[in-house]
Amino acid sequence: MTENMRSLRNFFLYKCLFALTFWNHISLSVENELFTSVSNDFPEDGSDKKIKSLPLLYTNSHQSKANFDWVVIQNTTENLSLSEITNDNVKKLVALLSNFRQGSRLQNLTLTNVSVDWNALIDIFQTVWSSSIEYFNITSVTQLSDIKSYDFDYSGTSMKALTVKKVLITDLYFSQDDLYKIFADMNIAALTIAESEMIHMLCPSSDSPFRYLNFLKNDLTDLLFQKCDKLIQLETLILQKNKFESLSKVSFMTSRMKLLKYLDMSNNLLSHDAADVQCQWAESLTELDLSSNQLTDAVFECLPVSIEKLDLQNNQITSVSKGMAELKSLKELNLASNRLADLPGCGGFTSLEFLNIEMNSILTPSADFFQSCPRVRELEAGHNPFKCSCELQDFIRLERQSGGKLFGWPAAYVCEYPEDLRGTQLKDFHLTELACNTTLLLATALLLTLVLVAVVAFLCIYLDVPWYVRMTWQWTQTKRRAWHNHPKEQETVLQFHAFISYSERDSLWVKNELIPNLEKGEGGVQLCQHERNFIPGKSIMENIINCIEKSYKSIFVLSPNFVQSEWCHYELYFAHHKFFSENSNSLILILLEPIPRYIIPARYHKLKALMAKRTYLEWPKERSKHALFWANLRAAISINLPISFEGNEEQSD
């Protein structure tokens, strides 16, 4: 019977434990409105311990029942979260926490909305320091008053990390050392005091075990930890969102932190002047965050040489100083949101692997970046105001050759200038090789120029252009002199029916056949012949022009001899010029002998054109056809001159 009773009791205890585990998210309210609840928050240090929690039951009645319940709590609960702590219930909180002696399961404690005076807060801290708690988070602490010195007992603690957030001190008159000394001398690995308007922190009075310090969003200044040599184990220091101003003073602050690896100074008021004293950083520092400050190009003269990861995002940097010390260990550099106009070279960053330079002022990034930075595995250069021009073509070509090293390609790489290309992705922007290769463009232009010059020279030689230019000049000068000598003559008076142009080798036919047959009889034609009508004292050229000008028609006796005469060519040129300038039908061509086209010189292109387009009279070999020839010729030159033939004869004599 006794054995059966023992079995029933064990079964009942098992059921109770099962019920307690099942209701692990229930909160119970007991006397004095002390609330306890279960929290699933992980500790601030990132511990991934499995959370086991049970409801807490605390009561002054039924002492035996309470003792039983505390045995269950101490063996099953790892996380405890309490809120609404006041001076009225703080003693019961201390009594509650006193039950969690070292060796119990409770490791994580969170207190929220704590409104107590200084002595009560010290009691809570001292109790926690003597308990099994390792990670203590306290948020929204107000009404701290009567702050005074306290001899805190740090010995024999299980505490590893303390996080204090949003502390509001109502006591206006107290010694700051009494407050900060409590935290500075804590023998824990991690301390966080954030969002509390803290203006200072003391250097620990002895070698400190701090490995992690986080003073986020306070009012700390350059005076922090100056000449402090007690933080010998500190590895991580976060001073984000404070009021630091001097980068050199920050460097001296770290110089005695022998194990410091990570420093976050982002969102401060930091600046550095090249005239400042030389910076001196902790030799162990490998990661530095200086983003969102007021740093300029001079910052590169005040950087730790051992740095491996550097964040300079959102500053006022326009270029990477070439006189900077070499950062041979730097692997990751963030220069986003600055004022850089080009990609920095890697002269001072020989080990660089990752570079972020997005959101700067880069129009045309250098195409030789990967050549100067052979170890870079990823370049983030998007969201810059790219100017899509020839200079950008090399950078686009570089992307194709880089093997995917441009992060964010192609969406983040868009043309900003010129305006008509705004919004066009760089991958869709193309220009011809000729348009962008200056050497090729100059070579092509030079080649075309040479070809053009060669063609013009050939045509000039083939068509004897210089000769025509010279003839035009002669004709112009002759006309000018004639107008100057006889300014009152408004127009030339025709004196001859025709001017005869022929080769001296054909002069027998002209004198024996042409002239007699045209001038004979009462109504004979008045002809102008150079032998009898050229005026002595004038140049041959001037005489030719005058005779052509004073003749209604110009008769050209064509033969192989004609095309070989230079003077005949002159006469043909001036007559042809008159033909076009006066729009008159003044040319008469007589083909005395057939002329093979191959013997006509190239410069006689006018003659070729005339023979191809105009009708000419061919001298017949048959004597029976001579009468018809002369009749046709007379009809071609028939005109009434404005002066008498007698007057002409007298003038020609």
Automatic annotation (TrEMBL):
Task: Please give a single GO biological process term from the UniProt record.
Answer: inflammatory response
How does the UniProt record describe the way this protein sits in the membrane? Single-pass type I membrane protein
**Gene Ontology CC, one term:** plasma membrane
Q: In what residue span(s) does the TIR domain sit?
A: 494-637
- Transmembrane parts of this sequence: 440-463
Q: Where in the cell is it found?
A: Membrane
Q: What is this protein called?
A: TLR1 protein
Which key words tag this protein in UniProt?
Answer: Glycoprotein, Immunity, Inflammatory response, Innate immunity, Leucine-rich repeat, Membrane, Receptor, Repeat, Signal, Transmembrane, Transmembrane helix
Instruction: Name the Pfam families for this protein.
Output: LRR_8 (PF13855), TIR (PF01582)
Family, similarity comment: Belongs to the Toll-like receptor family.
Its source organism is Fregetta grallaria
What InterPro entries has UniProt attached to this entry? Answer: Cys-rich_flank_reg_C, Leu-rich_rpt, Leu-rich_rpt_typical-subtyp, LRR_dom_sf, TIR_dom, Toll_tir_struct_dom_sf
One GO MF term = signaling receptor activity
